[in-house]
Design goal:
Elements: H1 2-33, H2 37-49, H3 54-67, H4 74-94, H5 99-111, H6 122-132, H7 138-148
Helix pairs in contact: 1-2, 2-3, 3-4, 3-5, 4-5, 5-6
Length: 160
């Protein structure tokens, strides 16, 4: 009896964790689309509390790069941006076929100021997104499709 209670508890905990991870993914993309420092800080703090995984580190990297826009002073902005670049690039290096990571990098490259020279992989990332798009889950396909509506690099027609 006690063993079945423990197993039942573990199953509930596993379900709650997987649901929380989905919620965090949604919260992450909302924060990425947001222009509110408070929203970005809140999601970054929740990511810091999570177990480090390639996805969590990629999300932290991108949000850290976005956070750089709120940092005072050019030196602080650059340092924060580079910290985010390092986190994301490490995840892409370790998972080069991960379409989501390529999408994350494309979004930053497309909007980063030219002076940062963080735009050398736009074409390569676009191709990775186009070729991997059909294998993504429906929620992520929707996020990418919505992004493509306003993107100068990635077009909705590329995804069909």
């Amino acid at each position: 009896m006690r063993g079945s209670v423990v197993i039942c508890f573990l199953l509930i905990a596993a379900l709650a964790t997987s649901t929380a991870a989905q919620t965090d993914k949604g919260a992450y993309y909302k924060a990425l689309a947001s222009d509110e420092e408070k929203t970005i800080d809140k999601v970054l703090a929740s990511l810091e509390a999570e177990k480090a995984t390639p996805r969590v580190n990629a999300y932290k990297g991108v949000l850290t790069m976005k956070k750089a826009g709120f940092v005072k002073g050019v030196g602080g902005k650059l340092k924060t941006f580079k910290k985010g670049v390092h986190l994301l690039e490490e995840q892409i290096k370790g998972n080069p076929a991960n379409t989501e990571f390529r999408f994350l990098r494309l979004t930053i490259q497309e909007h980063a100021p030219g002076i940062l020279k963080y735009n050398n992989e736009l074409h390569e990332d676009k191709q990775a997104i186009v070729s991997g798009y059909s294998r993504l889950d429906a929620d992520l396909r929707e996020v990418i499709s919505d992004y493509a509506k306003d993107s100068k690099v990635l077009k909705e027609s590329d995804l069909k």
